[in-house]
Amino acid sequence: MKSALFVVDVQNDFCPGGSLAVAGGDQVVPVINRLLPRFDTVVYTRDWHPANHISFAAQPQFIDQSWPVHCVAGTPGAAFHPGLQVREDAIIVNKATAVAQEAYSAFQGTDLAERLRSLGVDTLYLTGLATDYCVKATARDGLREGFRVLVIRDAVRGVDVPPGSADQALAEMARAGAEIITAAEVK
Ligand code: VGL
Ligand code: ZN
Question: Domain Isochorismatase-like: where (predicted)?
């Protein structure tokens, strides 16, 4: 059994001071930094939007959930939080890079599942932002792809829009088959 650590969207715009700040988003950073050395395989995801992405409220197209402008590719808001250790040997996945498509999951429109399987990975430990959007979607797709999925509760935070959605997301992930654990319980 081989595990991969997922660090989902720990980017400036999702941390306090960012355009789509998640309350306590930066608090996941030290927890993740302590976990990093324990994994052979690490995947960092980045929300990596074009400046006119369909999910931005200023865009005229209809989309069921829109957001302030955030994580525009190459801008400081899209950079990893400065305190996050970024491993040289990691897999980095950019998501929602096309103008007309929203993508919350690390697996959507990427070859990540295949890459992980070819490395012998069968278990995913999820950390990062945001619990109720990108972490939840990544958990769901990881389970659908046949991976064992564990969510590290003290290493995720939610946008909580609508209010309560962060806690609800943990319950939904558990119902879908994910295990909810704490960092202290990792291996
Ligand atoms: C996310 C809202 C919009 C996330 C990305 O990373 O969870 N949330 N784009
Ligand atoms: Zn986004």
Answer: 3-185
